[in-house]
Amino acid sequence: MKNDSPFITFIDSTLYKAAAKSQIDPFKSYSDPLDLLLTPTKNTILHINITQRTPSIPFLEHILTKCPSLLLKTNNKGETPLHMAARHGHDTIVQFLIQSSKDQHQDIETGAGAARAMLRMENISEETALHEAARHNHTNVVQVLIAEDPDFTYSANKAGETPLYLASERGYRRIVLRILDTCTSVSYHGPNGRTALHEAVIRNDSEMTRKILETKKSLVKEVDQQGWTPLHHASHFGHLSIVKQLLECDKSVAYISDKDAKIPLHLAAAGGGGKKYKEVVRSILQHCPDCHELVDRNGRNVLHFAVESKSCSFLNDIFKLMYNDYDGDYFPSLANLINEKDIDGNTPLHLAATYCIDSYLLIWHPLVDRMALNNNNSSALDLLLANSDQHSHGYKGGTLQKLKKGGYGKSQRNFIKEKDRLAGAIDMEELERLKNAHMVVAALIATVTFAAGFTVPGGYNGEQGSAILSTNGAFKTFIVTDALALLLSTCALFFHYTLGLDGVSKRKMEQYINFAAFFIMLAIMFMLMAFAAGVYAVLPHSSDIGVAICVITSFFVLICYSPFNRIFDDAVAEPAQELRPTPATNSILES
Hints:
This protein has helices at residues 13-20, 25-28, 45-50, 57-66, 81-88, 91-103, 108-119, 129-135, 139-148, 163-170, 173-182, 196-202, 206-215, 230-237, 240-249, 264-269, 275-287, 302-308, 312-320, 348-354, 360-363, 380-386, 393-405, 414-424, 428-454, 473-499, 506-538, 544-559, 561-572, 583-590. α6 (91-103) packs parallel to α9, α9 runs parallel beside α11 (173-182) and α22 packs antiparallel against α23 (393-405). Helices cover 56% and strands 0% of the residues. It has 30 helices and no strands. The longest helix has 33 residues, at 506-538. The protein is mainly α.
């Protein structure tokens, strides 16, 4: 029977322990090729020894003398013994392995080439020994490796990381400085479009930033995937010293915008408050005073972003930059931004009202437009009054008081607009309430008229079981109008039953309710006519009471003509794209 199980290599425990403890004797008498001794992951006895805390150079030397091919033998991950030594920080072992590669070739030039080839070998993750040393912060190993091959450009691994980027991202300053001082060809790039300079800036390492800028100044304009330059990151984190370094390197970087058209000044203003962000804003304006004119994709300027920091003290600090009593440079041109609107028509004051920020320097600024309206015709006071955020209720009262004292008012443009909105849009809850009220009225009329049909006026003939007044004209009118009232009230109930089915839209629901209201109104009219006819049938034809009842009943038609006509128009009209005012809605508005 065929065995499909994969072949697994392993090393005898005695030999494995000997390799781990650097014991040479067990291998002196071993006659088979040493490169056949492999663990399940294809580690050789060199790999095993090097991964120990104290690997032995005499042991490695003896093994390589018996089997030189082990020097470049890789495991399942494509790792050579040099990869292992670099990962564990064994700098003396790294030197020994490099020298062993040279010694295996008699010619000096050939030996040096073989050593460099070993240094450039990549594992399955496309990483060299230098990647391993940089990742694990082994400065001495890095020094040995780059000194042996300073002209080689170590490319990125599968993750897009170069050795320099790995060290910069982790904040290993000494390794970054060693690589930049020794290597003549360096790759600075990393994943997501970032460079080693981005990472140095994020780490807030001034010395690392300075060194990278000295070696490659153009990195100051490199952008990552979201369009951020190193200055964007420095401004976002409030790293003042880094901001100054980058601006002194190249001022034009302050005008570079990201994918949302935000410049570093915007990120600093939205930083959340604090002295460091105020100083970052001030530093950027000192170097590039006109960059405040730029807006992001939503039309927001630096004052909009300062308001979005939701810090009243920080917003006041930004406004102090407009006055010459500020300690240092001042920028009066910032005042030109006070009434500038974003794409929604909101000025910084609108946003301040939305967030309940009562910055006295903004509210009382002489240039601020107290009645500026946004695209919805709302003033700052309107937005504040409409603010229902429970987290801002504690500040709403104070902001409201300041706005009222400052002369801010409500917009008058929304008065009619709001009334029209209420008249043209009944919510589903109101429609449901109307439906329930209609059903009660329709059911009551149906019950009364149904019972009246069997308890006719004048009674029945006991022998024949027929109505006594069956030949009376008024009685006939009673029967017909009672039947019509019963029929119409039942139709109204049917319409409301239909509303309970799935798939009825809001517009269709309104039309059905209008039809039901129309039928209920007719049913009420016919029910009153049946009442009048029934009373008239049982009274003498000359009775003044019968005539009075008929006259009084007729007043109902005159009184209800106007609403009846409106209900009829709404019932037969086609549903529009927007809900129209209905009698029910009008009654709500009038009340």
